[in-house]
Amino acid sequence: MAKNKFIYMALAAATISFSSCEKDFLEKTPTEKLTPQQTSTESLIKGMYAQMYQTGTGGTTGHDDFGQKGYDIYMDLLSGDMALEGVNYGWYENLANLTAPVNFTANPNYTPWRYYYALIFSANSIIDKFEGVAPTAKSDQYAFAQAKATRANAYFYLLNLYSPELYGTGSEKVIPLLTSTSQVNQPKATAKEIFDLITSDLTEAVELLNGFSRSTKGEINQAVAKGMLAYAYAARGTQEDWQKVADLTNQVITSGAYPLTTYSQAAGVLSIEKPSGSEGYWEWDYKVSNSDAGFNNIETASWMWGADIQVSTGLDLVSWWGQMDLFTYSYTWAGDPKGIDADLYDAIRPNDVRKTQFYAEADYLPLGKFFAPDLIIGGQRTITTDYIYMRVDELYLLNAEANAHLGQEAKAIASLKALLAQRFKNAADYAYINTLSGKQLLDEIYLQTRIELWGEGKSYLAMKRNKATVTRGANHLFFEGEPYKYNADELTLDIPQAEIINNPNLNK
């Protein structure tokens, strides 16, 4: 890239380290976690949610170690829908070149493992306070339910990341199952045992969260728990499961609590000036005319769950925005851009507003989808733009997918068209949906899921449950044109060396 003449020094003050070479070991009981007897339920709940956006929760000082959104990037890269287009600083290089997943000593196997099990420990700390029995007081019930949902969601991601076949036959031994803080060094449980805990926890959470009015979207409410449960059933994907997915997503959709992301919110209308002599998009001037766009505000009505990032949160370079946004003092600005796969970009129809989320002439960057509001290149130093975990648009797509599997194609098309009505100005542009059926309809739903949720960490989940084969487009640095099946070793993480060393019962 032409800008390399000045960006090599751009982040020197940030003391960037290459901790991808570090060897960290998973602690049986992380020392920064207080025991249930040492702290209040309210503090435990707040701490549990904070882990989702704090740095270092994967056990390293790496600049890719910043909670859930860090692993959303992992999954987007593994899915192939996100292309790493620069490696000046090395973050994510061993994921993009697919060497990390087949090397159990590499940190990309370790950090999500430690993060999700640390989150499970935090959830178990709350559950243990009630000795595993749902409490009677409403406030305690809501805390207990949120812990159950968090534990289930962590296991759901572990199952996706570390089990090649996801559910498979159910009999495959996949990962350890810990349901109490007193448990250590457990053997691998079967996929069925993990799945049964996920669905049991979430079913209980849905019941107990009835009537819960949360104070912030940073907490899990009943609708979010239903969304999690829908994702879990879709991952196994029996006909009975798909009916449950259809029912759960329909309940959230018809509640009216969360409207779809609007046409305006879906993409920023950018005006771009290219000053004479500018060498590329990193020197252009940007303005946006629709302030409701940018996927940067938790108050957006379609957002069901997220993190309200404030100055006091203390995030900066080491953050999702730091890794993804041109308008944040960031790696994207400084030479490690991440863009949409070129083939996926080409698959977006010309009149689809989501086409304007990305700029082919700017390394396919999501300049119109994710941006700090000031639009100053490298400008946001302290992060105040919010994190998104779930929005209702996902549930419309899951509803369409479920109904297509159930043979309820009219319902599937209706859900898909409801979403596309907010992505096109002219209904004629998506009228082709009416002609689809069978595999063609399922393929279209999968494509629309990849387009709609690009950069939000959901493409990998869709790839796994659709048993898809992904082929890398021309803008990937590595393996351009190479196809990979969903269950390829290169797309599934290895149980890390730390767990193998420290857990003598792992394979018993």
UniProtKB/TrEMBL annotation:
Its main location: membrane. It is found in: Cell outer membrane. Residues 362-507 form the RagB/SusD domain. PROSITE patterns: PROKAR_LIPOPROTEIN. Keywords: Cell outer membrane, Membrane, Signal. Belongs to the SusD family. This is RagB/SusD family nutrient uptake outer membrane protein. InterPro entries: SusD-like_N (IPR033985), SusD_RagB_dom (IPR012944), TPR-like_helical_dom_sf (IPR011990). It comes from Sphingobacterium litopenaei. Pfam families: SusD-like_3 (PF14322), SusD_RagB (PF07980). The lineage of its organism: Bacteria, Pseudomonadati, Bacteroidota, Sphingobacteriia, Sphingobacteriales. Residues 24-230 form the SusD-like N-terminal domain.
